[in-house]
TrEMBL record:
Main location: cytoplasm
Gene: deoC
TM region positions: none
Organism: Chitinophaga ginsengisegetis
InterPro entries: Aldolase_TIM, DeoC, DeoC/FbaB/LacD_aldolase, DeoC_typeI
Name the record gives this protein: Deoxyribose-phosphate aldolase
Pathway(s) this gene product operates in, as recorded in its UniProt entry: Carbohydrate degradation; 2-deoxy-D-ribose 1-phosphate degradation; D-glyceraldehyde 3-phosphate and acetaldehyde from 2-deoxy-alpha-D-ribose 1-phosphate: step 2/2
Length: 220
């Protein structure tokens, strides 16, 4: 298993510095990670550091709580695309889920998907599975499958519970085969990353990516 190609190497802490982003990108070059996931502020910089490598540039929209206005998320999406992002990890409005306002969520995704598809970018929908009921996760799968998103993503890493094998299995059982799953939040070991991949994840979001790769080599 080439675990490195499953990983979005990530730095999204509120104190992220230019040096943090540079180090992240250099590690992406060294280890050939699938993507470098950086705060919107650093997308242009990451593009310079990564150049013509295999590593894609990912950033976050509506992060980390998802309750910003639709118009704000659309503006963030436009700016991220202009700055050079290849992949957009969008936090949906969790408050709307809890209010059972599926009409709002449908309006939100429709507005964002238009931009993403027009510019041929990849979209990952973050649902924060650790704080949702099973039936809410299933409804999310049904809604976002209808819009043909590229990935459903478990977590931001900011909720009290991150990725779980159970959530990945539930999502996989309720999504069409063409929609992939990204597991993120609390993934610090190769053993856990492999469990999530075996459960159906095809992408792993992690900041402990280098350690995960080293452990995978030891395991082999």
């Amino acid at each position: 298993m080439e675990i490195n190609r499953y990983i979005d190497h990530t730095v999204l802490k509120p104190t992220t510095t230019l040096e943090d982003v540079k180090q992240l990108c250099m590690q992406c070059v060294e280890y050939d990670f699938a993507a470098a996931c950086v705060p919107p502020l650093y997308v242009k910089l990451a593009k310079q550091f990564l150049g013509a490598t295999n590593t894609k540039i990912a950033t976050v929209i509506g992060f980390p709580f998802g309750y910003s206005a639709i118009e704000a998320k659309v503006a963030e999406t436009v700016l991220a695309i202009v700055d050079g992002a290849d992949e957009l990890d969008v936090v949906i409005n969790i408050s709307a889920i809890k209010n059972k306002d599926w009409e709002y969520l449908e309006k939100e995704i429709a507005n964002i998907m238009y931009l993403v598809r027009e510019k041929k970018k990849v979209i990952k929908i973050i649902i924060e599975s650790g704080i949702l009921l099973e039936e809410e996760i299933v409804q999310c799968c049904q809604l976002y499958a209808k819009y043909g998103v590229d990935f459903m993503k478990t977590s931001t890493g900011y909720a009290e519970r991150g990725a779980t094998v159970e959530a990945v299995k539930l999502m996989r059982a309720n999504l069409p085969a063409n929609i992939q799953i990204k597991a993120s939040g609390g993934i610090r070991t190769f053993a856990f990353a492999k469990e999530l991949i075996d459960a159906g994840a095809t992408r792993i979001g992690a900041s402990a990516s280098v350690n995960i790769v080293k452990e995978s080599k030891e395991a082999q």
